[in-house]
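Could you show me some protein's one-letter sequence and the numbers that encode its backbone in two labelled lines?

___
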Amino acid sequence: MPSLSRLLMMVPLLFLSLPAARADAPETVTVILDWFLNADHAALLAADYSGAFRRHGLQVRLIAPSDPGSPARLVAAGQADLAVSYETQLGMLADQGIPLVRVGTLIDTPLDTLIAAPGLTSLKNLKGKTIGISMAGVDDAVLAAMLGSVGLSLSDVRQVNVNFQLEQALMSHSVDAVIGATRTYELIDLRQKGFDPVAFYPEEHGVPLNDELIFLAPRDHARDGKIVRFMQALEEGTNALLNHPDEIQAQAVHDHPELDTPLNRAAWTATLPRVCKQPALLDGRRYRTFMDFLRAQGVVHRTLDLSTYAMDPTDSTP
């Protein structure tokens, strides 16, 4: 989830239409982004610039939400075809019985990071310290697991909600550490500002590997033809991005000048290795493992079958 500083550095993208030049009428796919356009969405731009969406008969509309908590709800309400969301949120949605499923992955490594003030070089140093969070429940679960990996618990720290003002809280010394910031944005921004933070990565401290950004679709439409073609086009676009990163970035900066900053350029470079190369492919074992983790942490309260919350729409195997 982006911090407030991340939002202030980006011009709001209210609506972006990726046109398809095709003789017959293209089929429209509407995607609600997780937030404003940024480096995380590079593969979507590449699928447009490379002509992949056009070749698959699609016109893709990207819409930035006014509320980052709304994408999944909008898709569930039938107001869009796909939402860019988080695997952590997927667990909560499935637990609540909301009929959305994962149909693809945009970023297939964790990005969330626990960032501590200079000098706090071990998680054990956090005992008695104040930690800023933004998303109660999810942040609690990740923090509890990380602290548990060094024999601490949530009762050993003080948590305060900083309402996504993660960088500001840390740099003003209001907190000793924050959780929920990303290693490809806030961590870079802090370093560019001359702050010398210490980063702890959840997957190295008790939290299972998970996909940072995923696509959610209504369960009843997860295998619709246009969803299948969207994922196929995205895979082609991702390959174009990896083959021609400089050209794709140059076009993105030309079309969206707000991306032409040292921070956004550095974020683009840092994000490229984390773009999912086979977006539709589902690692069932990994998804089950992460769902088990969420249940163990009390975020999810019941056992869920994989098919109820995640699938590969391009896999026709019964």
Remarks:
- The chain has a mean pLDDT of 91.
- The longest strand covers residues 100-107.
